Amino acid sequence: MxxxxxxxxxxxxxxxKTWIRACIAVFLCTASSGAxxxxxxxxxxxxxxxxxxxxxxxxxPPPSVAWLVPLAGDPAAISTSAPRTxxxxxKNKQFVPxxxxxxxxxxxxxxNEDPFFHNVFSLYNGKRFDLGLYETGSARGVRFDREGVxxxxxxxxxxMGAVILALSTPYYAISRDGNIAIPNVPPGRYALNVWxxxxxxxxxxxxxxxxxxxxxxxxxxxxxxxxxxxxVTHHANKYGESYPPAAADDSSTSPY
Length: 256
Hints:
Elements: H1 2-37, E1 40-49, E2 64-70, E3 85-87, E4 89-91, E5 94-96, E6 99-103, E7 106-111, E8 118-122, E9 129-134, E10 139-144, E11 148-154, E12 161-167, E13 172-174, E14 179-185, E15 188-196, H2 201-207, E16 209-213, E17 218-226
Parallel strand pairs: 1-17, 3-7, 6-12
Antiparallel strand pairs: 1-14, 2-13, 2-15, 4-5, 7-10, 8-9, 8-11, 11-12, 15-16
């Protein structure tokens, strides 16, 4: 009899443990589902204008990026973006895509698919690097472990330029015709940042603000960004000097 009583008690404790685990699993699933269901879009419109008379600078506005950084102490601050590996291809003397947003810490490869040499570099305020000369069919890359905007160039071809934004927040979106919708943003307090190529430092600073996202999301209205000549179209080589005049046989396989 004592043996049977002990076995019965052990069985009962096992049933209780199983029931408790099931309850915890249901609670976590429900909490996760509830948190996700409360996430909504944050929408805004970015107008790219000239400094004179606030006129539109482009018939078709260039891509803009908006991102939200959870403020200190806010529950949404626990969300992070996982680093990944991305590719920005060099093809037909262009970087494809021209604009890329990556989670902070991501690795970006720059494969050379042109029949001549390239030399990818960046010397601006974001990630500073110089990948050196490398030939067709090869690839080199760099880890973007510094948050911010990096302008990407080729030291051989001045017409080549691109932009990579490394962000530590998962709450961002790229515009379509000036309209931006940042998806799945939980309620909370955030710092809003907006960027477009060539925007002046003054207008980027003026666009920053603190916002509150409610259970219904947030509609932020229109934001004007004043543009100047873009660093992508007006830049020096990696030595800070002007590019030499293009040779007539620039499409050759020469690295110079």
